[in-house]
Design goal:
This protein is an alpha+beta fold. The chain has 2 domains: about 5-135, Alpha-Beta Barrel (N-terminal domain of MutM-like DNA repair proteins); about 150-275, Helicase, Ruva Protein, domain 3 (Orthogonal Bundle), CATH 1.10.8.50. It has helices at about 5-15, 130-135, 150-160, 165-170, 180-190, 205-225, and strands at about 25-30, 35, 45-50, 55-60, 65-70, 75-80, 85-90, 105-110, 115-120, 125-130, 265-270, 270-275. A 5-stranded antiparallel sheet has the order 1-8-9-6-7. A 5-stranded mixed sheet has the order 2-10-5-4-3.
Amino acid sequence: MPELPEVETVRRQLSQVIVGREIADVQVLKAKSWNGELKDVVGQKVTGIDRRSKVLLIRLANDHTLMVHLKMSGQLIFVDGEFRTGGGHPTADWIQDLPSGHTRVIFTFADGTKLFFNDQRIFGWIRLLSSEAADRSLEGLAPDVIDPLITAEYLFEKSQRRSIPIKQFIMDNQIVAGVGNIYACDALNLAKISPLRPASSIPKEKMIRLLKAMREVVELGIELGGATAHGKYVHVTGLAGKYQDKMRVYGKKGEPCPNCGAMIIKMKLGGRGTFYCPNCQK
């Protein structure tokens, strides 16, 4: 699933190519993927692209917003002749002819360029709302982990009433947004905290260390364009990220821990694959 760095990368890539373009046509190929009135999109210019957690907010000139959630397998790919950019879940759609069998919505701009919303599993969605309604719908989300509003004191206070494992605690978007599975595993290793440890048992000094570690791995992920776990597509210019080259423990079962050299193990926690070092993560 695309995580915050991957979604932020899509936002940055698309901001360079679709802001200022006028949407001339929208084709909805899968009704489940779209919610909104097409008449409120056609003829409108894209004025900007924002992001809250993993939701992209494509702003239109008429004070409407296209909300996009890529979920498990979504992609947004801009195509201008031989040039393409964007990103999301890595599949052959990055490099094959578009539209493909996974294309759900096609935006055609006035100059003939196109933006394809692909979604293999059809869990993702595009919703058109007034900009006010779109922003209001996201008010329940906590700030991103890289937002200065998130402090160690805030996390410590929230954790005192939570007995769930710390990994699940930092992945709760009602507490702090933007820490997905890959980055949670790596941050906990960097902070030398076991993912199994109850959130309420983390002292304030360790919470300070954990927040610093979460920010470090997420900011590195953004800098490197996110992670592309499928080796077949890691060299697709403008689409694939490189965080997978810097992963600390995620996907590294049986390899040495970067902290102490002991063997990294894998287990299931909250239904998610969890990688950690039982030797130094306490």
